[in-house]
C-alpha cells in the first residue's frame, strides 16, 4: 500500500461570480451561456400569508386549479401542448409568493411562457373542476398527514406563532380547512390577486431570447401592483419550555420538531444567524449531528436551521429518533442548543461553516432552476442586485464574536417548544419525568 | 436536437493498477465534481449478509489511514463542498462537488479510503453506524405508510438466490449480526482500483486531473480475480402471476403492478423507458388521463410508472396508483390493468412525441450540473466499458419507434405480472 500521507492544501482560488442581473420592466433575468434548458417563473404577491382567515390551503388549491385548463383549451389539451414542448409547469405558493413557472428547452421558451401566461391569467376555473381539485387536495393532505411530520409541524407552528395567526397554521392548510373551501373562494382568490403584473424571472442562455417579448406575453392585460402585506412582525419567544405530544401509536421512531420564533429573512443578522445554525445543526459535522448521530447512533440525521420568510422566521430542529431513546435524544438536543446560546461557536467550527456556506453558493448555483430561485429571492425580499456577490464576502468575513453574539441573541433554549410525534403510551411517563418542560397533548 | 446527449469533451486514462479515470472539462463555473463508482452493490451480498454493502458505504465516512473519524465530512464541507454516497443493487457511488481549488483534497480523501480504510475500522465505528443504518431503515421503510413496498416487490420479482432478490437496505437480523472482519474483507475484496471508475468533471484541465489521479491513486495495488456477483441475467420465469395483499395502517388503498423487463442499456429497455413515460409521466400521461382524470379512480398526485435502471439483470417496470376516496383496491387494480392492457390497442405518434420531449428535458436537467455528468460518466464506464456511451442514451430514446413500443407493450403480459396491493384496515374488515 502506498498512500500519500500529507493532506494537500488548496490551489489558487477561482472566485465565483454570480451572473449579472438584468432588469427590464418587470423582468429580472440572468444569462447562463450554454445551458440547454431555461426557466421562467412568474412571481405574484399572493402567497399563503394572503389567505383569508379560515381559508388555509386556498393558495395551494388555486395552484392546482390553474392546471385544469384555460379559456383556450381543456386540461388534457393544455397538458399535451405543454408536455409536447418538453416543458414542465410548476405552480406553488409559499408564505410570500405564488409562483407559476416553466422549465423548457431554451428554443421552446417563448411557447412555454405563453402557456404559463395562459394558465396564470386566464385559467378555465370550471366549478366542477375546482370542486374536484379541492377534494383531491384534501385527500392528498390526508395522505401526507398519515406520514410522520406534518402533524408535528402543525403543532409546532401553532405553538410558536399562535393558531389565531395565519402563519401559526400549516402553509398548505390541513385536510379539514381544504375540504371546507368553496368554488367561490378559489375563483375569488384568483380574481383578487392575479390581476397584478407580478415579476417574471428568467434564467438560461439568453442569446436568442427576447426578454421584452416574454414580458409582453405575461404582463398583457395586467392591472396595478398590489399594496405590500406589511413589515416584519415582532419576534415573541415563549417564556418557559414545553413539550407537545402527538400520538402515533406503535411508531418505531419519534419524530422530533423543536423550535421557537426568530427574525425575518432580510434581517441584518441573517449571515451570522445562518452561520450559528450551521455550527449547531446545518453541516454534517454540526454539534447536533455529531452528537446525536455519530456519537450516540440515535438517528439517521438531525438538522437545525432558521426558516425565514418576509415577515417572520423561526428556528427549526428536525430529526427522527428510535422510540426508546426519545428522551435522551431530546436532552442532548436541548443541551447543544443551550451550549451554543451560552458559549457561542468556536473558530474551528466557524471556519467550516463559513467556507461551506460560501462554497455552496458556487456549488449550488449552477443550474437555471437554482439561479431562477436566487433571482426570486432578490425580488421577494427586496434585496439588491449585488446581494449574492456580497453574500459570499459577508459569509467569509463573519468573525467568531459576531456569530456567537447572534447565537446568544437569536437562540432561546428556555423558550423552546419540543414537539414529539411518537408512541405516546411508551414515552409519556419518561417525558414527564425528564423535566424538559410541561408535557401537553398537542392541539392542531 | 443535439446528436449526442453529452456535448462536452471526454478524456479517459487507465492507471497501471487498473483504475479508470474519466475527465470532462467544463470551465463554466469554478467547481469540480469527483465521482467514484465501485462495481459492488447489494447484488454481491450472500445470504445472511443483506445490507452489508450499504452499511459499508457508511463506514467509508468514518476515517481511514490518514483521516480521523468524521474528518472526511468536515474537510469537504470546510472546503465549501457537497458530498454523499449511495448504494443500490448494482453499485456503490461516492461523490463530492467542491470549489475547483480543492480538487486535490477530494482526490486525496477518496484515495485514502480506497487504499487505507481497513486500519481505521473499529468495532465502535461499526456499532455506531449499524445503529444509524437501522434508524435509516426505520425512517424510510418502517415508519411510513407503503414504505416497505420496495422490500416486498423485490422478492416477488426475483426468485431466491437471484442477486436482486433482496433489498439494499438489508434485514435487521443481518445488520445485527454484522461483524468487523466481514467488513474488512469486503473492503479488501472490492475496494480496489481495478474495480472502480473515477470521474472528474468541471473546472480542471484533463492533464492536471490525470496527474493528480496518478499521484494519489497510482500507488494502490490492484487485486486480481475480484469475485463476480451471482449471475442474474437468466432468472427463471415465474410460473404464473404473483400477488401479495397487505392489510395495513395506510391512508388509502394503493396498487403496484410490476414486472421484470430488460437490463438498463439495451434498446429494449430504452423502449420500456419511453413506454413508462407515456404511461405515467405528467398530466398528459395515460395513467393521469384515464385513472386520475377520466375514470377518477386514482389520486392525481400518486399515479406513476417508471423503470428502475438496473443493468445486471432484467430491470423492473413499476406502475402504481393510489385510490381516490371511496374507491376500493379491486376497482383501482382493474383500472390499472385496463390501462396496461390498453397499450396493446396501439400508441399514438403524439403520445410518443410527448414522451420524447419530456425525456429530453429530464436528460438535460440531469446533465446541467457537473455532479450529474460525473455520475453518468462513471456509470457508463463501469457498466458499458466506455464513458462516451453516456452520449448515446438520449439519441437512443429519441429513436424509439412505434413498432418498438408495440413490442415493449406486448411484453406487459398478465402472466408475468407481480401485483402488490395495500388495503386499509377498514376496507378489509
Automatic annotation (TrEMBL), chain B:
<dbReference type="InterPro" id="IPR011249">
    <property type="entry name" value="Metalloenz_LuxS/M16"/>
</dbReference>
<comment type="similarity">
    <text>Belongs to the peptidase M16 family.</text>
</comment>
<dbReference type="GO" id="GO:0008237">
    <property type="term" value="F:metallopeptidase activity"/>
</dbReference>
<dbReference type="GO" id="GO:0006508">
    <property type="term" value="P:proteolysis"/>
</dbReference>
<keyword id="KW-0645">Protease</keyword>
<feature type="domain" description="Peptidase M16 N-terminal">
    <location>
        <begin position="21"/>
        <end position="139"/>
    </location>
</feature>
<keyword id="KW-0482">Metalloprotease</keyword>
<keyword id="KW-0378">Hydrolase</keyword>
<dbReference type="Pfam" id="PF05193">
    <property type="entry name" value="Peptidase_M16_C"/>
</dbReference>
<dbReference type="InterPro" id="IPR011765">
    <property type="entry name" value="Pept_M16_N"/>
</dbReference>
<protein>
    <submittedName>
        <fullName>Zinc protease</fullName>
    </submittedName>
</protein>
<feature type="domain" description="Peptidase M16 C-terminal">
    <location>
        <begin position="181"/>
        <end position="359"/>
    </location>
</feature>
<dbReference type="GO" id="GO:0046872">
    <property type="term" value="F:metal ion binding"/>
</dbReference>
<dbReference type="Pfam" id="PF00675">
    <property type="entry name" value="Peptidase_M16"/>
</dbReference>
<dbReference type="InterPro" id="IPR050626">
    <property type="entry name" value="Peptidase_M16"/>
</dbReference>
<dbReference type="InterPro" id="IPR007863">
    <property type="entry name" value="Peptidase_M16_C"/>
</dbReference>
<keyword id="KW-0862">Zinc</keyword>
Amino acid at each position: 500500500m502506498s498512500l500519500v500521507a500529507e493532506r494537500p492544501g488548496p490551489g489558487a482560488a477561482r472566485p465565483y461570480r454570480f451572473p449579472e442581473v438584468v432588469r427590464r420592466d418587470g423582468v429580472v433575468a440572468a444569462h447562463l451561456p450554454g445551458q440547454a434548458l431555461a426557466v421562467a417563473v412568474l412571481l405574484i404577491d399572493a402567497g399563503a400569508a394572503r389567505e383569508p382567515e379560515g381559508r388555509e390551503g386556498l393558495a395551494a388549491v388555486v395552484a392546482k386549479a390553474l392546471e385544469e385548463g384555460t379559456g383556450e383549451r381543456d386540461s388534457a389539451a393544455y397538458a399535451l401542448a405543454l408536455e409536447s414542448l418538453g416543458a414542465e409547469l410548476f405552480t406553488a405558493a409559499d408564505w410570500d409568493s405564488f409562483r407559476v413557472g416553466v422549465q423548457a428547452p431554451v428554443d421552446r421558451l417563448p411557447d412555454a411562457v405563453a402557456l404559463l401566461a395562459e394558465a396564470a391569467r386566464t385559467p378555465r376555473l370550471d366549478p366542477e373542476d375546482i370542486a374536484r381539485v379541492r377534494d383531491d387536495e384534501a385527500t392528498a393532505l390526508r395522505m401526507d398527514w398519515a406520514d410522520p411530520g406534518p402533524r408535528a409541524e402543525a403543532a409546532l407552528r401553532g405553538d410558536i406563532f399562535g393558531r389565531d395567526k395565519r402563519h401559526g397554521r400549516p402553509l398548505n392548510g390541513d385536510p379539514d380547512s381544504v375540504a371546507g373551501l368553496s368554488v367561490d373562494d378559489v375563483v375569488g382568490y384568483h380574481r383578487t390577486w392575479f390581476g397584478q403584473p407580478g415579476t417574471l424571472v428568467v434564467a438560461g442562455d439568453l442569446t436568442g431570447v427576447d426578454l421584452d417579448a416574454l414580458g409582453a406575453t405575461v404582463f398583457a392585460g395586467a392591472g396595478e401592483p398590489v399594496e405590500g402585506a406589511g413589515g416584519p412582525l415582532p419576534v415573541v419567544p415563549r417564556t418557559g419550555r414545553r413539550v407537545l405530544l402527538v400520538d402515533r401509536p406503535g411508531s418505531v421512531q419519534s419524530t422530533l420538531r423543536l423550535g421557537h420564533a426568530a427574525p425575518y429573512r432580510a434581517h441584518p443578522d441573517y449571515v451570522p444567524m445562518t452561520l450559528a445554525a450551521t455550527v449547531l445543526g446545518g453541516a454534517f459535522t454540526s454539534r447536533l449531528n455529531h452528537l446525536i448521530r455519530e456519537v450516540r447512533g440515535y438517528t439517521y440525521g438531525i438538522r437545525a436551521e432558521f426558516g425565514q420568510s418576509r415577515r417572520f422566521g423561526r428556528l427549526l430542529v428536525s430529526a427522527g429518533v428510535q422510540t426508546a431513546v426519545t428522551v435522551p435524544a431530546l436532552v442532548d438536543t436541548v443541551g447543544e442548543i443551550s451550549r451554543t446560546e451560552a458559549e457561542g461557536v468556536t473558530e474551528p467550527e466557524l471556519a467550516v461553516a463559513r467556507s461551506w456556506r460560501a462554497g455552496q453558493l458556487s456549488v449550488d448555483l449552477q443550474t437555471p432552476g437554482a439561479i431562477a430561485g436566487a433571482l426570486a429571492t432578490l425580488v421577494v425580499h427586496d434585496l439588491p442586485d449585488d446581494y449574492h456577490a456580497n453574500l459570499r464576502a459577508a459569509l467569509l468575513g463573519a468573525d467568531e464574536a459576531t456569530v456567537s453574539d447572534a447565537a446568544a441573541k437569536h437562540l432561546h433554549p428556555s423558550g423552546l417548544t419540543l414537539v414529539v410525534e411518537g408512541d405516546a403510551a411508551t414515552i409519556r411517563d419518561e417525558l414527564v419525568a425528564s423535566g424538559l418542560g410541561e408535557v401537553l397533548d398537542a392541539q392542531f | 436536437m443535439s446528436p449526442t446527449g453529452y456535448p462536452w469533451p471526454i478524456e479517459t486514462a487507465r492507471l497501471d493498477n487498473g483504475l479508470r479515470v474519466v475527465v470532462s472539462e467544463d470551465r463554466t463555473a469554478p467547481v469540480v465534481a469527483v465521482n467514484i463508482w465501485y462495481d459492488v452493490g447489494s447484488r454481491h451480498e450472500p445470504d445472511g449478509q443483506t445490507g452489508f454493502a450499504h452499511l459499508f458505504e457508511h463506514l467509508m465516512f468514518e476515517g481511514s489511514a490518514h483521516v480521523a473519524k468524521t474528518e472526511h465530512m468536515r474537510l469537504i464541507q470546510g472546503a465549501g463542498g457537497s458530498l454523499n454516497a449511495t448504494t443500490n443493487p448494482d453499485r456503490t457511488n461516492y461523490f463530492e462537488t467542491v470549489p475547483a481549488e480543492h480538487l486535490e483534497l477530494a482526490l486525496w480523501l477518496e484515495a485514502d479510503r480506497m487504499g487505507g480504510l481497513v486500519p481505521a475500522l473499529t468495532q465502535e465505528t461499526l456499532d455506531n453506524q449499524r445503529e444509524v443504518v437501522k434508524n435509516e431503515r426505520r425512517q424510510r421503510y418502517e415508519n411510513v405508510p407503503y414504505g416497505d413496498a420496495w422490500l416486498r416487490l423485490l422478492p416477488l420479482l426475483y426468485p431466491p438466490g437471484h442477486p436482486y432478490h433482496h433489498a439494499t437496505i438489508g434485514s435487521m437480523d443481518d445488520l445485527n449480526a454484522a461483524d468487523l472482519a466481514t467488513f474488512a474483507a469486503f473492503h479488501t475484496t472490492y475496494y480496489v482500483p481495478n474495480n472502480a471508475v473515477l470521474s472528474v468533471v468541471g473546472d480542471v484541465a484533463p492533464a492536471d486531473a490525470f496527474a493528480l489521479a496518478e499521484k494519489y491513486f497510482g500507488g494502490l495495488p490492484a487485486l486480481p480475480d475480484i469475485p463476480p456477483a451471482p449471475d442474474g441475467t437468466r432468472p427463471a420465469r415465474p410460473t404464473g402471476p404473483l400477488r401479495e395483499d397487505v392489510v395495513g395502517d395506510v391512508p388509502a388503498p394503493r396498487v403496484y403492478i410490476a414486472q421484470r423487463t430488460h437490463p438498463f442499456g439495451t434498446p429494449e429497455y430504452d423502449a420500456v423507458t419511453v413506454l413508462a413515460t407515456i404511461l405515467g409521466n405528467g398530466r398528459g400521461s395515460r395513467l393521469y388521463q384515464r385513472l386520475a382524470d377520466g375514470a377518477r379512480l386514482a389520486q392525481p398526485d400518486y399515479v406513476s410508472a417508471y423503470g428502475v435502471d438496473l443493468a445486471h439483470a432484467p430491470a423492473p417496470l413499476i406502475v402504481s396508483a393510489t385510490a381516490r376516496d371511496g374507491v376500493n383496491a379491486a376497482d383501482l387494480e382493474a383500472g390499472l390493468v385496463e390501462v396496461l392492457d390498453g397499450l396493446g390497442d396501439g400508441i399514438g405518434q403524439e403520445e410518443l412525441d410527448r414522451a420524447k420531449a419530456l425525456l429530453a428535458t429530464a436528460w438535460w436537467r440531469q446533465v446541467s450540473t457537473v455532479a450529474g455528468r460525473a455520475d453518468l460518466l462513471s456509470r457508463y464506464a463501469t457498466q458499458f466499458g466506455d464513458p462516451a456511451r453516456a452520449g448515446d442514451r438520449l439519441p437512443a430514446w429519441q429513436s424509439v419507434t412505434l413498432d418498438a413500443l408495440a413490442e415493449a407493450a406486448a411484453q406487459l403480459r398478465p402472466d408475468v405480472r407481480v401485483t402488490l396491493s395495500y388495503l386499509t384496515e377498514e376496507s378489509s374488515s
